[in-house]
Amino acid sequence: MGRKVKKPNLFISTLFTLLGLGFMGLAVAVYMLYQGAPNGDFKEILIQRGSSIAQVTGTLQENNIISQPLLFKALLRVTKGERRVRAGEFRFHSGMSAIDALKVLYYHEPLVHHITIPEGYSIKQMVEVLVTANLVDRSTFTEKAFSASYAKKYNFSSPNLEGYLFPDTYTFSRVDREDKIIDQMVQNFIKKVGPNLRAEAEKIGMTLESVVTLASIIEKETANSIERPLVASVFHNRLRKGMRLQSDPTTIYSMADYKGNISKSDLLRYHPYNTYTIPALPPGPIASPGLAAIRAVLEPAQTEFLFFVAGTDGSHIFSKTYGQHSRQVSVNQIAPNKGKPLGKVQKQNIKK
């Protein structure tokens, strides 16, 4: 009889076949993880706070960052992405590999935006800057900044946070909530003005809030560092005499829709912020003053000036009497603009 030929063990054959397929699958999977075709285009993608693995994957797929969403999602799960992915704005290459996209999420720092708020900006102006940079929701930021409860939270007796969002250059992220941005700006105000501002204000018979309010008006009246103490002296002198401040910037602040000109009816229209109609400071600031304007209120020039008017070169001319002031108005405002329609230039800074 011939020797029997042994048949291959089916289990062993199957095992080797599966192992072979497994290694092939693993090789394909590894290849796909590193496979990408970056086209050179950068995209800045926002990963929202609290995003799930599925949401992160979906966001990257929708923006053509990854081409293998199922593989990428599995990779996130295996590497504990639910704990490691951070909220923020990240810069990706379109068409990059899954591994490279993962490295961006895990190891790259989120993008930040450097935002400058100039001295003398009001909350409305700040909102425009922040909205343009896609950092805040307009209505949410406005509502919170104008909230009396927010002012009370920081122990300000003003009706809102106008004047207390300090003008400076800030670093914000697109995942920073409106509350965080507001808090950072207020805390900066508290830090910059120092702990002694209330005590300094009391020494000259004022409160912190009234100092900031007057400083905001000065900030709007002039950007000239030499003139600020002089403008402060005019307003201090007028307040002591019970005279109205008659500051155009307060009238502008009281107007719902300022178009660049102030009419006589605007000046005469009662509003708690219109210092042409109230014999005192308005109830709160009209903008955020810088430190120089605040110091000008605390340390005004010692003068007898009660009036000032904008000169033809942009500086201001100061006067003690209404007669002197009227002559300066004629020379610097009326004569140069004779025949022109009454507008912003002619009416600005004419104290009566």
Write a short abstract of this structure.
The chain is mainly alpha-helical and 352 residues long. It has helices at residues 10-34, 53-62, 69-78, 81-84, 98-107, 123-132, 138-145, 148-153, 178-193, 197-203, 208-221, 228-240, 248-254, 264-268, 291-298, 322-334, 344-347, and strands at 42-47, 88-93, 113-116, 169-172, 307-310, 316-319. The chain is built from 17 helices and 6 strands.
The number of E-state strands comes to 6
- Structural class per helix/strand content? mainly alpha
Percent in strands: 5-15%
Radius of gyration based on Cα positions: 33 Å
Mean pLDDT: 86
Query: Assembly state here?
Result: single chain
Please count the helical segments: 17
Helix fraction, binned, reads: 40-55%
Unreliable stretches (pLDDT < 50, length at least 5) are 13-21, 23-34, 341-350
Helix-strand topology string: HEHHHEHEHHHEHHHHHHHEEHH
Q: Give the strand order of the largest sheet, numbering strands 1, 2, ... along the chain.
A: 1-2
Distance between the termini: 133 Å
Biggest sheet details:
2 strands, antiparallel
Shape assignment: elongated
Number of domains as seen in the coordinates = 3
Characterization of this structure:
The protein is built from 17 helices and 6 strands. The protein has 352 residues and is mostly helical. The protein folds into 3 domains: 39-111, Dna Ligase, domain 1, CATH 3.30.1490; 113-193, Dna Ligase, domain 1 (2-Layer Sandwich), CATH 3.30.1490.480; 197-347, no CATH class. A two-stranded antiparallel sheet has the order 1-2. A two-stranded antiparallel ribbon has the order 3-4. The longest helix has 25 residues, at 10-34. It is elongated.
